[in-house]
Amino acid sequence: MQKVKDALKRSGFRSQLAFATEMGAARDTVRKFVNGKNIDRNNFIDFCEKLGLDWQRIVDKPLETNTDPNFVGRENAIATLDHLINKKKGKIINIYGMGGVGKTALAKQYLKAKGFDLVLEVFMATRTEDITPVTFIVEEWLKNDFTVEPSQDFGISLKRLKEQLKTRKVGLLIDNLEMALEGGKFIEDHHQYVDLFKVLADADVQSLTLITSRERLTESGVEVEYYPLEGLDKDAWNEYFIYHQLIIDSSTVTAMCNAYGGNAKAMTLICSQVNLDYSKGIKQYWQDHKIDLLANPTLKHLVNSQFDRLEKHDTDAYNLLLRLGCYRYQDISSVPFDGVKCLLFDVVETNEQLRVIERLKIGL
């Protein structure tokens, strides 16, 4: 897109950031535009008109629109998944992170984009007692998706599933797996999932399995690659708000993004509320809500569920989290390692202290 770069210079824009500011657009959107990557059609046309370019003449092929403009800021995540699959030959990828960070959206978009012959999805129930037994899931797949008769013997059914996965390119999504885990291991009632995962991790199958969870799967008998998903950056928040035609203020969006750790769910909830109650104005919304970040009931439930789960499954890690509150975040940007260890005064062994700290990092 050399024509675009030349036009930027001719128009007096000293940088992509200056152009983004002028257009009220996210810097990442402008970067994609300059480098010939797909962006929203309306943005593309507006940018070209601002630079005095005929957009129909500078594209080498028909202009593609973003298939899902609500899915933003995950180019690096997709590249990382590609690396884990293509370079490290991962068959099962565990995408883990806080609730609402965007794990399920990333997994769905990835499987949708990669041209699988078939995509199978399992969504874990929100209550442990309602989780579907893995034997039922495999039986359903064999009958309905592969037209193969399942066996009453689960081991034979798994063997038949494996034969199907050897010959077909299948993508699998297993969502919210943490409901079947305790401390990274399957709870006793659902330990047979390990047998399924061993099949899905086999080098001979053509399938790819993406697991989403709030904690890592650490079953010793299952080979898994891990990807910790972090929040979106401020450019992604800007891009999302601009697409939804909010009146944005860059410093305000940055402050909100930082306050919520880039959480994708928070971003979408804020956008909806600003549209409904604030005439699309971000600035006034933030003035009213920055003191109470969890005023939205959905956000409050999201955070509470994370704390409740940690309290239920790991008392030591939960107590450490509460004690960390003695360090005021307004005054201390980071806590030294010794400062964390001294809060574990009721955990005597040094190795166990290290394990508690690691579990807290994974649990959050």
From TrEMBL:
Alphabetized Pfam families for the sequence: NB-ARC
SUPFAM superfamilies associated with the record: P-loop containing nucleoside triphosphate hydrolases
Name of the protein described by the UniProt record: NB-ARC domain-containing protein
Entry superkingdom: Bacteria
Molecular-function GO term, any one: ATP binding
Residues in NB-ARC domain copies: 81-176
Gene3D superfamilies (UniProt xref): P-loop containing nucleotide triphosphate hydrolases
